[in-house]
Amino acid sequence: MPIIPEEIVQRYQRLKDDLNQYNHAYYVLDDPSIPDSEYDRLMRELQAIEQDFPSLVTPDSPSQRVGGVALDSFSQVVHRVPMLSLDNAFSDSEMVDFDRRVKDRINLDSSQQMTYACEPKLDGVAVSVLYKKGLLERAATRGDGSVGEDITANVRTIKSIPLRLQGEKIPDILEVRGEIYMPKAGFNHLNQKAKQAGEKAFVNPRNAAAGSLRQLDSKITATRPLEMCAYSVGQFEGENKPDSHFQMLQMLGKLGFKINQHIKQVKGIDACEDYYQHLASIRDQLDYDIDGIVYKVNDFRLQDRLGFVAKAPRWAIARKFPAQEEMTRLLDVEFQVGRTGAVTPVARLEPVFVGGVTVGNATLHNADEINRLGVCIGDTVIVRRAGDVIPQIVKVVLDRRPPGAQLIIFPERCPVCQSAVKRAEGEAIARCTGGLFCGAQTKEAIKHYASRKAMDIDGLGDKLVDALVDNDLIYSIADLYDLKLESLVNLERMAQNQIFGKQPKKK
Questions:
Q1: Active-site residues: which are they?
Q2: pTM, 2 dp
């Protein structure tokens, strides 16, 4: 190996440090410190040195963001510290209840005020980014909270995420949690380019961000305008750990991460409400989508005392903004049968764009809800995405009811197996009494058994289960273990014939 002149080594290190600092100023601080032309000149010089002396290249070089060889698949990552979800609040009263529960659990007098850290809830993809000795080692999606996917190659292309941490007293191990999102301006530009190229446009920034992160070829991710805001820490091994969440965010900012400019420390639940009203008033002016506010008990010691319940911390809550609503027409109602026999009415709607997605179906929950709404087939209805996720009908526009509107009749017989549908006294849900004689219940039981949280049977998805039951190849969970390869091959052949319209040859 040739000896590299010391002046080259020093120049390379200086270029690397300077370019990383310029990236931080441009992508994190939104304060460019040099012209683009000068940045490009320095980058070309760095790349020339790396080409002449490949042994100099290190993982924190800015040249290493451009993307490498495409992957065949994503590997799994187990989160040492689980990435938990948050409980939701949709009203002032629910926030007051949250505050009361917090005080009760730590024996704080109701007249005393808690200090909360408040921050916008960005509508993107939650990720974990792990640093060892200050160098980015691994990045992963949240997944189910316990296991995610390794997206390190893609995350390295995002310029607002440091490859090497800045400053002094860097923790030996630091796992930063954040939200990767696509700013509205970048999203609009990306869709404009897609339309010009005759390609399909993305529906909303969140879908665009999620799709960009799941590219097996990181070179594609590198072309997408993604950013990350840090919002918490998982693993932390080192000295000088901050005492509060707000202080931790300030520390992350000094280490080189983008921190949301609207984070705030407040005292008392009334101040939380003021913060919510302020963010709601400027929501549409922000260059990124938010779907609510996250409130966290600020003091880490109090967080430890409060602990967790199920898969959510007791010391944090997400206050959701009112769901977006649109009007559309109810075309029909179908009754679906679930795993436990629950018969659920599903509204078939004239497709309408609500909260960033096209909605064609909505839940009507049960017979009581139908009666409460007084809804009929043919009605114009208001559709809301509750929590910006689940579409539901919230109101009927009575003055638009057509003359031929039809009453919705809840079935007395199961629409699948014709068994009696009964409703136990005191329950809102009506159920099919057919048990596993009912094909719908059989399918749902098998799907549940094969799901990731149960037996996690790879490849046994909903469509395959439907096909196996519909073609009388299985009648129960036990039948899965008697399936023959020949049966599956025949099933695949039948599916191909249906897709391509082939019919068996006549003899």
A1: 121
A2: 0.67
